[in-house]
Structures are given as structure tokens and as C-alpha cells.
Specification:
Layout lengths: L14 E2 L11 E2 L2 E5 L3 E5 L8 E6 L3 E8 L2 E6 L5 E5 L3 E2 L6 E3 L3 E5 L8 E6 L3 E2 L1 E5 L2 E4 L4 E3 L3 E3 L8 H6 L11 E2 L2 E2 L1 H11 L8 H7 L14 E4 L2 E5 L4 E6 L4 E6 H10 L7 E3 L2
Parallel strand pairs: 1-2
Antiparallel strand pairs: 3-6, 3-9, 4-5, 6-7, 7-8, 10-13, 10-17, 11-12, 11-16, 14-15, 15-16, 18-19, 20-21, 20-24, 21-22, 22-23
Length: 278
Amino acid sequence: MTLDPRLTLARPDLAASGLEGLVAAARYAPTKARACRLAATAIRTAPAQEAEQADQLLFGEVFDVLEEAHGFAWGQARRDGYVGYVALEALGEPAAPTHRVRALRTYGFQAPSIKAPALGPFSLNALIAGVETQGRFVRDVGGAWFVQDHLAPVGLDFARDPAAVAERHLETPYLWGGRESLGLDCSGLVMQALLACGRTCPRDTDQQEQAFVQAADPQALRRGDLVFWRGHVAMMLDAHQIIHANAHHMAVAIEPLNTAIARIEAGGSGEPTGYRRP
């Protein structure tokens, strides 16, 4: 059995206890749950600030830590399963979320007042562990006060149209490995749109193409369908227009599907590899 290294918390010297008997390692150990206490933080491919950002944690998301060394934690994001390195200063004690952010982005305040010093901004799908309500504000266990109208109770009040969620990100800068509302990549945009609708979604384009097994007819595409290329994904807004975070525009952009197909093929990445209905 070949396990995806992006989703497998294992190295030759160390692996998570649950992988004993599945992967070879010199030592197996249990993980310790930590949580992102910044608005967002990078999951990197190596324990260095200059290393590639492969993914992100959003505020409140749990990171299961297997090793701490040299200012970084090596572990696995619980929400999307991604393995990598996170700066220790970004992590704190986890708390059971009571709310998630449903606004595209929002601020937390140091007191229950819009005039108080602001923290953030915190992105769509961030997780809030509310411990107190005062007027229109909810206080997270970490002390930040959030406007309740920008939150939704965990498990309730999901958006219904992933394409509409994606449209809210229009002109957001492209960011490799990004999943926050200030910058995100193609698969990050799809993941955020589906999470906001209560749908689980893998992190990378190849994982998404494999996970969504229902094929869509390229001659009868509809809103919300996904178009995959090698290393890229876009979402249909109607039968002809797509929205996608892309490195050509360096932003989330809307354009005709045929235009994107021609440009991507001319750039050497080939024709679409699949059409899916998530």
C-alpha cells in the first residue's frame, strides 16, 4: 500500500502511533492536539520560515503535533489532513468550537466594542470557541470579541451555493498554499467554498479530482461544477464562465472557460483532465 506523504504523518525516524504496522519507522509516538491561535498561519514543507507554504491553518483549527524542535511543530492538520511544519508561536491550547466565521473576513476586538483595538482579520471558516456573550459580541476563549452577525453556530446556517461563496473572493490575490480570505490558491478557493456550505473537501487539486467521483458532462456544465487541469481547478459559474484563483491573473478572476482552456494549453499544461460535480 502506498500512502500519500502529504497526508501521512511519518518519516523514517518517527511516525504517529496510529500508523504502526502500516509504515516503517524507527519510533512511533502519540500526537498532541494544538490549535492555531493566529488569524492564519503557514503549514510549511520544512522547519524554516523561508520554506514553501504548502497549506494554511485558520484560527481555531486543530494541528496534531508529533514533534517540536527548533521553533516548529511537525504534525498534521485535522481539518484537511495535511502534514507539515508550523511555527510554534502560532499554536496554543485547543478549545471546542462553538461558532465558525461566515463573513468573508471579520475582526476580533480586545473589548466588546467596535472602537476597541482590532485583531485579525479572521477569514471565512475560522473556528471560534465562544465562552461569553455580551450584547452583539461573542468572546472567544482566547479573549477576542467577535460580532455575532459574522458568525454561525457550528453545524448550522451553512451557505447553499459554493459558486456564490467563491464569487465573494473575487480579486483576492493569488497565494500559493493559501486558504485565507486575504490570499489563496485554486484548490484553496474550492475548499473554502465547499467548507462554507458544510461540505468536506481535500486540499490539493489531484485529491479533489479523485474525491469527487461524479462526472460532469463538458457539453452541459452547470453552476458549481469543477474543471480540472494538471495542477489546477476552476469552478463553473454557469455553462460558460469560470471563477478560479490563478497565477495568470495573480488573483481570483472570472473568465470564459474556453479562454482559460486555450491559454492553459498554450502554456504547456494541456487540456482539462476532468469535469466533476461535487
